[in-house]
Amino acid sequence: MTVVRYQNQWPSLFDRFFNNDFESWNRDNFSITNTTLPSLNIKENKDSFFVEVAAPGFEKSDFKIELNNDLLTVSSEKKLNNEVKDGERITKQEFSYQSFSRSFTLPELVDEEKISAKYENGILAINIPKREAAKPKSPKLIDIK
């Protein structure tokens, strides 16, 4: 009869769960106030930059977009209040407060006067157009004399 040593697989599972990746996820996805930072996409084409901020559950009025010189700041502060009506009492209440602030330094080629934003289906979309002088021009054939 051969004796086989039993190897416990649980320690490796716990080691993977509590490794540095898990700890850095906690630091990278939460702000200083321990609130979740929304994910975003930044896209560019020949005419504009586009910033998309994923913020489901917000209202258009919850956002503040501010341009200070070349620094664009997107922020939000949202408090959920559960009012108690006559004849009701609170048996359990969990407060909710969400806030975030993300800032971007805009390049000089941006037309600051034409920046626009809209909030739809949980996505805050910011359109940042480029100046006409900064847009790529089609090649021009120079006539040789």
TrEMBL record:
Family: Belongs to the small heat shock protein (HSP20) family.
Domain SHSP: 31-145
Domain of life: Bacteria
Name of protein: Hsp20/alpha crystallin family protein
Pfam family, one: HSP20
Organism: Flavobacterium flavipallidum
Listed CDD domains: ACD_sHsps-like
